Amino acid sequence: MLAASAVLGLAIVIEVVATALLPRTGGFTVPGWTLLVIGGYSVSIWLLAYVVKTMPVSIAYAVWSGAGTALVAVISVTMLGEDVDAVKVAGIAAIVAGVVLLNLQGAH
Predict the structure, then answer these.
(1) Lowest mean pLDDT among 16-20, 36-40, 73-77, 100-104
(2) For residues 8 and 47, what is the distance between their CA atoms, to the nearest angstrom?
(3) Would you state the pLDDT for residue 106?
(4) Cα(17)–Cα(37) distance, rounded to whole angstroms?
(5) Exposed, middle or buried: residue 66 (CB in 10 Å: 0-12, 13-18, 19+)?
(6) Helices (DSSP H) in the chain: which residue ranges?
(7) pLDDT at position 24
(8) What value, to the nearest 5°, has the Cα angle with vertex 103 and ends 67 and 7?
(9) 22 vs 92, which has greater pLDDT?
(10) How far lies 31's CA from each of 16, 22, 34, 39, in Å?
(11) How far, in Å, CA of 14 to CA of 27, rounded?
């Protein structure tokens, strides 16, 4: 399970990087950035498919999507110049709480 968790972490990082690069694609009109983003998403999904061979898909996907969403929100504010407000912070907290609850339920 430790190896699956490490692979899941790598899948999350790759997906977050690909998502953070989306603005550079110019709506998929810049070929190099577009290929990098699509490649990143493809590798991330491939790694996720590997993870669900040993981890329940409900837990793996919740962690992948929840952590990815929260990290992209943080990167958007810190590196891409997006505004932060109480609603964004509450939304990220809700995502993290949901992932924690699913993991606690899956551990029993």
Answers:
(1) 100-104
(2) 7
(3) 64
(4) 8
(5) buried
(6) 2-20, 31-51, 57-78, 86-106
(7) 96
(8) 55
(9) 22
(10) 19, 12, 5, 12
(11) 20
pLDDT at residue 36 greater than cutoff 70: yes
Distance CA 59, CA 101 (A): 10
- What pLDDT does 58 receive? 86
Estimate to the nearest angstrom the gap between the alpha carbon of 59 and the chain centroid.
Answer: 13
Asked if 82 and 76 touch (Cβ cutoff 8 Å), the reply is yes
Residue of 55, 81, 72, 74 lying closest to 3 (CA atoms): 55
Asked if 54 and 83 count as a contact pair (C-beta separation under 8 A), the reply is no
CB 51 within 8 A of CB 60: yes
Helix 31-51 vs helix 57-78: crossing angle, to nearest 10: 150
